[in-house]
Design a protein that fits this description.
It contains four helices and three strands, in the order H-E-E-E-H-H-H. With 141 residues, the protein is mostly helical. The protein has a three-stranded antiparallel sheet with strand order 1-2-3. Strand 1 and strand 2 form a beta hairpin. The radius of gyration is 15 Å and the shape is globular. The N and C termini lie far apart (31 Å).
């Protein structure tokens, strides 16, 4: 399912934006962009939610999402905006540098593989979110 959310058409407008793809990029005359994606996994009556909480799923990391202390509350609007803006900055940076994007995608895929195969508990979720943030910081330097 994650791969489906990262699909782009063979449109020649990939760089300039396109409404034909599931993963939409803004640019040129197109101002619409995928702003967040999530998948829900149901197995053995256990629900797991993974979300990017950031733009462009093709350049974002799906992280475990639990409805508890991991989300921002209404008093933390600026923190939530800062979180999203940081990831927006990353996708803009790597979209301009194919080699950097290739390297990021390799690291993203390794981290997502770990995320999708980790047993969920509060400690592991915090560690995975921290790893995602460290990876984002590494590529923003």
């Amino acid at each position: 399912m994650i791969d489906i959310l990262r699909i782009h058409t063979d449109s020649k407008n990939f760089i300039n934006g396109s409404l034909k793809s599931i993963c939409m990029h803004s640019g040129s005359l197109i101002s619409s962009e995928t702003t967040g994606s999530f998948v829900v996994k149901l197995k053995d009556r256990i629900i797991r939610i993974y979300a990017t909480l950031s733009p462009r799923p093709c350049s974002s990391i799906f992280k475990p999402l639990a409805f508890n202390n991991f989300l921002y509350n209404e008093d933390e609007v600026q923190s939530a905006v800062n979180y999203w803006s940081k990831r927006k900055k990353l996708v803009e940076k790597i979209s301009k540098n194919p080699e950097l994007k290739k390297k990021f995608i390799q690291e993203r895929d390794k981290l997502e593989n770990e995320i999708l195969n980790t047993k969920w508990n509060e400690k592991s979720l915090i560690e995975l979110w921290d790893k995602e943030d460290m990876l984002i910081n590494e590529f923003l330097l």
